[in-house]
């Protein structure tokens, strides 16, 4: 089965959707993954494509001219007091540009509330034929993929999925054997990267997560074992690394991400 790749974050989130799409097209990616639901963190360049009609049309033209496609939009967070209707405009924009998926994560410790709101999010996204793919994040409310699986089994939504991020899976010490038991239909795409050994402090873990991930095969994560435990899906390369961007530039880093991922996956990944 042909392996396809999407370009996600290069470093923090300091590129506009159009800049990222141009880089992805220039480097030969199959897809691009863009942020349309912003988090208000340092480095973000918030561009609402529903309002910026010029950039919207430029991206649409780029897709038509190059064959690049939009894989997913992010980040539909579940948190205390979330107003899910505020995400709908991003869903509509994403769908109109060809997106297939919405990335979500849960940032509340109120499990019942989180399950209720995630189910509602899936129902909202279904109006736009989008899946909602839930990832575990080591610093969030839902930290393990075992917890994600429990939520998917409870809500029973046919457009709900599990978004595997190899960095997060490693940091959560989740079980590959457990991963093998998850239904194939839960997997729509995955985020891949390598990383240094798990650090001893939370602060260093966050730093690596946000700006210090490694190219595939250059860190200590057994990426192949993780993604061979799931079906072959499009791989979104989320590899923020500020030092590599300084060394190679945005496009040079993106090209290196793709080259190393292809070499690694062609050698080690067969999928289940």
Automatic annotation (TrEMBL):
Alphabetically sorted, this entry's keywords are: Endonuclease, Hydrolase, Nuclease
Q: Where is the Xylose isomerase-like TIM barrel domain?
A: 23-240
Methyltransferase as a keyword of this entry, yes or no, is: no
* Gene Ontology MF annotations: endonuclease activity
Superkingdom of origin organism: Bacteria
Instruction: Please state what the protein is called.
Output: Family 2 AP endonuclease
């Amino acid at each position: 089965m042909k392996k396809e790749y999407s370009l996600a974050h290069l470093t923090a989130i300091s590129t506009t959707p159009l800049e990222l799409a141009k880089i992805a097209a220039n480097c030969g990616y199959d897809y691009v993954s863009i942020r349309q639901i912003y988090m208000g963190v340092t480095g973000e360049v918030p561009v609402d494509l529903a309002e910026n009609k010029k950039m919207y049309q430029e991206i649409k033209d780029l897709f038509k001219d190059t064959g690049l496609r939009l894989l997913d939009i992010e980040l539909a967070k579940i948190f205390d007091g979330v107003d899910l209707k505020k995400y709908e405009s991003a869903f509509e924009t994403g769908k109109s540009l060809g997106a297939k998926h919405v990335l979500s994560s849960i940032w509340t410790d109120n499990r019942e509330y989180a399950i209720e709101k995630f189910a509602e999010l899936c129902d909202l996204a279904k109006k736009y034929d989008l899946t909602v793919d839930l990832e575990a994040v080591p610093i969030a409310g839902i930290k393990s993929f075992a917890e994600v699986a429990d939520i998917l089994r409870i809500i029973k939504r046919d457009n709900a999925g599990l978004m595997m991020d190899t960095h997060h899976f490693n940091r959560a010490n989740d079980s590959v054997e457990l991963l093998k038991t998850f239904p194939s239909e839960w997997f729509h795409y995955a985020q891949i990267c390598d990383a240094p050994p798990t650090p001893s402090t939370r602060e260093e873990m966050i730093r690596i997560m946000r700006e210090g991930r490694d190219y595939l095969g250059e860190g200590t994560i057994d990426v192949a074992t993780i993604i061979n435990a799931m079906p072959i899906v499009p791989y979104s390369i989320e590899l923020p690394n500020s030092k590599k961007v300084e060394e190679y530039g945005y496009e040079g880093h993106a090209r290196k991400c793709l080259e190393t991922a292809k070499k690694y996956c062609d050698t080690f990944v067969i999928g289940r």
